[in-house]
């Protein structure tokens, strides 16, 4: 873009904010540039667009808080992906958006996290944070249809990342409630650069290897054209739970025990018509036992001897006295805690000058991401008189007699003659099918964006016009551990598979043959396509008049026309659910024929320099959606600079987020509740099943209903912020911004079941009953209801100086979350403040997070030491602890997570730059928590906060060919 003819004023504040744009390394580079220049006052700055505004400007300090992260800082921190960058940002929420935090099995309707990494700012969710590439949208992930997969961003070509810490629906439309992340690539590059890097863990597992090639030809100024392209290849290796000592769920003294009764040596469970009927009376206590493992009976071998990672079931922790003779299995330790992901990314751009004031460009971005998610082996739960979707109990026949008799005799020896102990009745059980092998899902995602555009100047006005097509196409296949149900049923019913084997004993050859014949590996699970076609045009420039200041009134206006498309499909056989392949997360109820909607938007923005010290910015956008009608969203912001080194800024805006296709058009899914701990909450407090409490003694397993709702309306939001920037000299600056986001008419589903049972009167209509009054289903479909209120304070500060012939820099960035309140229904008041409290599924509202970095550079060497701090919070409480049980070493608080990273950069050889780093310098383990897999991911540690890789050593080599 042509430079302005005038020379802009570069005061203390501008210089300090230029310093704040990057890391210590970027600051050092700036210092060296300034030393070679005659005077900073003589510089001529180009007009540039900053994320959050359509008006091009020369002032770097705008009314809106924008964090700019330069390539030098990214490399100095050893960051190799967009996901790692987000984990470093304090404004990014501690949510289930990373490869470690979303490693669980995706049930129907949440399939989209198969290898997806999302961006989540200010706790508003990955679907309420807008991700841009060079200022324009990219397609949402093909399976999710909701969020942009950060793995598709061509990270090797990124020049800087701009993070708008404010709502921006008035500028960009939907999704920009939490903020905007704009990944900006190079625009004019010559030469060839080869980069190779590795990030290797000390304890093994989770290694990362990457390499990239960047080449560019032609100079826009002299040749009037430039073409460049980049290719990046990256491999994230698998990290398993048994590779880290802190992944240990058998810590009952601290309140943690696995809540699973599916064990390698099976647990016997109650059931009408089964060997133990409704349960057996313990002769010692008189209590009814509904889950029994013969290993744990008095005189038994002990649960820990029944198989790898077995131990006692924590009946007191889980408030399940009927399971005090049960065993458990550490399936958190058996699980993959960081998914393996292979990524190939490419991007290219060709730019041609047309005359002196215009540029035509064409850009193509493509990526292929392959993830192979691996989970623990199947848990087999059997039923008496099993239907086609259920598995059969262990019957007495010629194949099973020896084992059957041994189990019966052990039960009879302890419990004696009881009416419920019936020889000849099938044994209902829960078993961990280790012969089945780990369950695996392989997802391949191919994404691209093709963009053509023109930029330039006509008179005093700039324009930017673009036409783009973006698409994400993904599919998942079964890659192991899943079996066709009819064959699996047969192998269990006839006793070929034996669920009662001790270590050292093996299944028969007939069992292995039966499993091979039933193997469903290679079967397509589902596939989806998400695409966006966009035409946009914006124009900005001076209106030719002034108010009472020196600068002209500036304006921008434009249009945005977009077509969004989504489809989701798979084999028709998945409609049979468990009758087809047992336990696989098929999603036939949510198949969706191609859907599309058109979006038309117009927007305008005005920048009003009222006086020299006061600037007001007004923006408004009107969007019209097929099916929703129109929505108009304004934004008002100001910048007041009463003295040269002090700026006050603030903004108010409204925002919106339209429901995605999946929430609107998903099919209705009814799946039986798999737990054994639920009773009718109308008569049983908190709905906690207990066979020895009269009103809680009847166990229920209703259907859970989930699905879309075509009557959903857009969510709405109001955002406010106010702050200041202080820069008394060129070596120091500090900024503080207070912000608030209130969302209403929020789209919710899957209400936490424990919350529903604990607050039954509020959710009574969600419990569906038959004519007799028995609960047969619980409705958890999407609806518009309730809202959230979030407030916080963001702090950023830089200080630099000279020392020992070099330059030092201290950078501090912190995020204080003051308020997080929710309400489930519009008629209810907001909840108590949840900041610092445990949240089971979504964003963990940590009160304080910060990064503190110290850098020093001299000559060819640059050092950076960074502290990353994530505050502690109140831990979750399992049911037994809620009911009054206190484990001996119980601590209700989770400690802060503090890690240190170090990097050293050397550029002493011509054309070569080398960076060596150590992440998690002290090899700090994640803090202990009783969080367990049924609530997300992480067993004994919190995957939304901590990096499970531990200390790692990274090396990055960059060589530029002349």
Largest sheet: 22 strands, antiparallel, barrel
Strand content: 35-45%
- How many beta-strand runs? 48
**What spatial form do the alpha-carbon principal axes imply?**
elongated
Output mean pLDDT: 88
Radius of gyration: 30 Å
Question: Number of helical runs?
Answer: 13
Tell me the distance between the termini: 26 Å
Task: Provide structural commentary.
It is elongated, with a radius of gyration of 30 Å. The protein starts with 11 loop residues before the first helix and ends with a strand. A hairpin with a 2-residue loop joins strand 28 and strand 29 (614-625). It has 13 helices and 48 strands. It has a 22-stranded antiparallel beta barrel. Strands 1-4-5-2-3 form a five-stranded mixed β-sheet. Helices cover 10% and strands 42% of the residues. It is mainly beta.
Topology:
Blueprint: H1 12-20, H2 24-36, E1 66-70, H3 71-76, H4 82-88, E2 129-133, E3 136-137, E4 158-164, H5 169-172, E5 179-185, E6 191-201, E7 208-217, E8 225-236, E9 239-240, E10 267-269, E11 280-281, E12 288-289, E13 291-292, E14 310-312, E15 327-329, H6 331-334, E16 336-338, E17 341-354, E18 358-377, E19 379-383, E20 391-392, H7 401-415, E21 429-432, E22 438-458, E23 461-480, E24 483-484, H8 485-493, H9 509-518, E25 524-546, E26 552-569, E27 581-582, E28 592-611, E29 614-625, E30 629-643, E31 646-657, H10 661-665, E32 669-672, E33 703-706, E34 715-729, E35 732-744, E36 747-748, H11 753-758, H12 760-763, E37 767-769, E38 775-779, E39 783-784, E40 787-803, E41 806-823, E42 848-858, E43 861-870, E44 873-874, H13 879-882, E45 893-894, E46 897-909, E47 912-919, E48 952-961
Parallel strand pairs: 2-5, 19-20, 33-38
Antiparallel strand pairs: 1-4, 2-3, 4-5, 6-7, 6-48, 7-8, 8-17, 9-16, 10-13, 10-21, 11-12, 14-15, 17-18, 18-22, 19-21, 22-23, 23-25, 24-27, 25-26, 26-28, 28-29, 29-30, 30-31, 31-34, 32-33, 34-35, 35-40, 36-39, 37-38, 40-41, 41-42, 42-43, 43-46, 44-45, 46-47, 47-48
Helix pairs in contact: 8-9
């Amino acid at each position: 873009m042509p430079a302005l003819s005038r020379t802009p004023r570069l005061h203390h504040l501008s210089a300090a904010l230029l310093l704040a744009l990057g890391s210590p390394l970027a600051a050092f580079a700036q210092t060296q540039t300034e030393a070679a220049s005659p005077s900073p006052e003589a510089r001529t700055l180009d007009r540039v667009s900053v994320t959050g505004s359509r008006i091009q400007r020369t002032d770097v300090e705008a009314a809106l808080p924008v964090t700019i992260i330069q390539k030098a800082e990214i490399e100095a921190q050893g960051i190799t992906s967009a996901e790692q960058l987000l984990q470093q940002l304090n404004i990014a929420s501690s949510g289930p958006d990373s490869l470690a935090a979303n490693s669980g099995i995706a049930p129907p309707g949440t399939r989209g996290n198969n290898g997806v990494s999302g961006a989540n700012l200010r706790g508003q969710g990955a679907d309420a944070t807008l991700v841009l590439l060079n200022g324009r949208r990219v397609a949402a992930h093909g399976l999710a249809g909701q969020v942009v997969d950060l793995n598709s961003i061509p990270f090797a070509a990124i020049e800087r990342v701009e993070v708008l810490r404010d709502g921006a629906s008035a500028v960009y439309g939907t999704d920009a409630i939490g903020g905007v992340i704009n990944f900006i690539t190079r625009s004019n590059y010559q030469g060839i650069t080869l980069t190779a890097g590795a990030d290797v863990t000390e304890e093994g597992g989770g290694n990362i290897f990457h390499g990239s090639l960047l080449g560019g030809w032609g100079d826009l100024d002299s040749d009037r054209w430039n073409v460049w392209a980049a290719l990046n290849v990256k491999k994230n290796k698998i990290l398993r739970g048994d590779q880290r000592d802190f992944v240990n769920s058998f810590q009952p003294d601290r309140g943690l025990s696995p809540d699973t009764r599916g064990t390698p040596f099976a647990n016997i469970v109650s059931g009408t018509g089964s060997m133990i009927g409704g349960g057996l009376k313990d002769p010692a206590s008189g209590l009814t036992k509904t889950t029994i493992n013969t290993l744990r009976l008095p005189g038994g071998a002990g649960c820990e001897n029944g198989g790898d990672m077995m131990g006692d079931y924590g009946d007191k922790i889980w408030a399940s006295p009927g399971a005090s003779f049960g065993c458990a299995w550490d399936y958190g330790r058996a699980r993959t805690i960081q998914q393996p992901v292979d990524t190939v990314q490419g991007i290219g751009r060709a730019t041609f000058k047309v005359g002196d004031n215009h540029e035509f460009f064409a850009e193509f971005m493509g990526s292929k991401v392959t993830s192979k998610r691996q989970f623990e082996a199947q848990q087999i739960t059997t039923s008496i008189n099993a239907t086609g979707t259920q598995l059969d109990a262990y019957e007495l026949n010629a194949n099973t007699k020896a084992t059957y008799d041994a189990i019966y005799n052990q039960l009879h020896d302890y419990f004696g003659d009881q009416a419920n102990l019936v020889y000849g009745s099938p044994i209902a059980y829960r078993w961990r099918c280790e012969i089945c092998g780990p369950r695996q899902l392989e997802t391949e995602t191919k994404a691209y964006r093709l963009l053509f555009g023109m930029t330039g100047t006509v008179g005093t006005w700039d324009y930017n016009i673009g036409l783009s097509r973006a698409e994400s196409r993904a599919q998942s296949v079964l890659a192991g551990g899943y079996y066709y149900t009819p064959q699996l049923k047969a192998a269990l019913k006839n006793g070929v598979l034996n669920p009662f084997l001790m270590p050292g004993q093996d299944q028969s050859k007939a069992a292995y043959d039966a499993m091979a014949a039933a193997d469903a590996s290679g079967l397509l699970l589902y596939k989806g396509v998400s695409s966006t076609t966009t035409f946009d045009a914006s124009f900005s420039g001076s209106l030719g008049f002034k108010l009472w200041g020196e600068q002209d009134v500036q304006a921008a206006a434009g249009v945005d026309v977009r077509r969004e498309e989504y489809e989701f499909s798979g084999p028709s056989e998945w409609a049979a659910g468990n009758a087809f392949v047992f336990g696989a997360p098929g999603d036939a109820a949510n198949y969706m024929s191609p859907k599309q909607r058109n979006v038309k938007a117009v927007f305008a923005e005005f920048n009003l320099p009222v006086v020299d010290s006061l600037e007001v910015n007004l923006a408004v956008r009107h969007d019209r959606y097929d099916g929703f009608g129109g929505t108009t969203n304004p934004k008002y912001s100001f910048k007041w600079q009463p003295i040269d080194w002090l700026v006050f800024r603030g903004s108010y805006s409204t925002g919106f987020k339209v429901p995605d296709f999946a929430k609107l058009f998903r099919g209705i899914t009814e799946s039986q509740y798999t737990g054994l701990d639920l009773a009718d909450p109308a008569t049983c407090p908190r709905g906690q099943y207990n066979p020895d409490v009269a009103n809680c003694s009847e166990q229920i397993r209703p259907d859970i209903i989930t699905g879309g709702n075509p009557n959903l309306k857009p969510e709405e939001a109001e955002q406010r912020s106010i702050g200041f920037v202080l820069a008394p000299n060129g070596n120091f600056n500090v900024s503080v911004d207070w912000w608030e986001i209130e969302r209403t008419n929020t789209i919710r589903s899957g209400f936490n079941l424990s919350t529903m049972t604990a607050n039954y009167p509020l959710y009574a209509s969600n419990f569906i009953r038959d004519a007799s009054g028995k609960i047969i289903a619980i409705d958890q479909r999407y609806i518009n209801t309730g809202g959230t209120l979030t407030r916080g304070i963001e702090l950023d500060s830089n200080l630099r100086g000279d020392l020992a012939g070099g330059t030092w820099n201290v950078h501090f960035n912190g995020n204080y979350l003051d308020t997080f309140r929710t309400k489930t229904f519009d008629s209810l008041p907001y909840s108590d403040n949840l900041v610092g409290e445990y949240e089971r599924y979504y964003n963990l509202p940590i009160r304080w997070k910060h990064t503190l970095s110290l850098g020093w550079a001299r000559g060819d060497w640059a050092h950076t030491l960074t502290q990353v701090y994530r505050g502690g919070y109140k831990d979750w409480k399992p049911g037994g602890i809620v009911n009054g049980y206190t484990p001996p070493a119980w601590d209700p608080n989770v400690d802060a997570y503090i890690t240190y990273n170090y990097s050293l950069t050397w550029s002493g050889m011509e054309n070569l730059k080398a960076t060596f780093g150590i992440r998690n310098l002290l090899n700090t383990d994640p803090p202990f928590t009783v969080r367990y897999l049924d609530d997300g991911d992480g067993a004994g540690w919190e995957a939304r906060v901590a990096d499970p890789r531990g200390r790692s050593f990274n090396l990055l080599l960059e060589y530029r060919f002349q």
